[in-house]
Amino acid sequence: MDEIIVIEHLSKSFTMHCLEKQIEALHDINLAVNEGEFVGITGKSGSGKSTVFKCIYRTYAPQQGVIRYNSQKFGPVNLAAAAERQVIYLRKYEIGYVSQFLNVIPRTTTRELVKQAVLEMGHGEAYAEREAEKMLGHFELDRELWDSYPATFSGGEKLRVNIARAMVKRPRLLLLDEPTASLDYSSKLRVRELIEQLINEGTTMLGIFHDLEFMKNLCSREYMLRDGRLVDITPEN
């Protein structure tokens, strides 16, 4: 199986200027992920899990290391040093990110947000409308909310919109940062169902979870982030 992303010697630190102090978040992270794998990552709050994803998505620039992504359009790309235009393209067409937080355009409805994600992929209006409604229905978001502004939603409702918007694009690589954090059990099951579907369709995923038990039998491999390093905790068969 071909590798879709390879992380080598990734390190990231933050400077606390007010305290004149350097905080090391990641130290020598190494990870290779094959196409179609689902890799689960756990660890204590503040251990740096989200920082790994933000380096992949290039929200953060790492101090050291290489993040080699095998792009359909550009071929091998080092995400740690890629040109901004490449990063923008990859975020739009190849790499999806589900965060616990929803940043939305003011006065844009839930339906429009999800529909816009499909239109960005080059699909037509009618198809985008159908896919948006199908995805919102899957996450059991009340129909009365579809044409409302998500700025007024609860945390769980916002997270469901965020997941719907990312997953409806069916990206090649999907980063899931605590996708079940503020969801009830029924909504968690909906997330799991969709993850299973995307795995079957060939999407590669990296997911951060407090409770890897919920993702049991879905993860190809499991890691714990401890002291800035990734530790393989995959159960032996």
From TrEMBL:
<dbReference type="GO" id="GO:0022857">
    <property type="term" value="F:transmembrane transporter activity"/>
</dbReference>
<dbReference type="GO" id="GO:0016887">
    <property type="term" value="F:ATP hydrolysis activity"/>
</dbReference>
<keyword id="KW-0547">Nucleotide-binding</keyword>
<dbReference type="GO" id="GO:0005886">
    <property type="term" value="C:plasma membrane"/>
</dbReference>
<keyword id="KW-0067">ATP-binding</keyword>
<dbReference type="InterPro" id="IPR015854">
    <property type="entry name" value="ABC_transpr_LolD-like"/>
</dbReference>
<protein>
    <submittedName>
        <fullName>Alpha-D-ribose 1-methylphosphonate 5-triphosphate synthase subunit PhnL</fullName>
    </submittedName>
</protein>
<dbReference type="InterPro" id="IPR003439">
    <property type="entry name" value="ABC_transporter-like_ATP-bd"/>
</dbReference>
<dbReference type="Pfam" id="PF00005">
    <property type="entry name" value="ABC_tran"/>
</dbReference>
<dbReference type="InterPro" id="IPR003593">
    <property type="entry name" value="AAA+_ATPase"/>
</dbReference>
<dbReference type="InterPro" id="IPR027417">
    <property type="entry name" value="P-loop_NTPase"/>
</dbReference>
<feature type="domain" description="ABC transporter">
    <location>
        <begin position="5"/>
        <end position="233"/>
    </location>
</feature>
<dbReference type="GO" id="GO:0005524">
    <property type="term" value="F:ATP binding"/>
</dbReference>
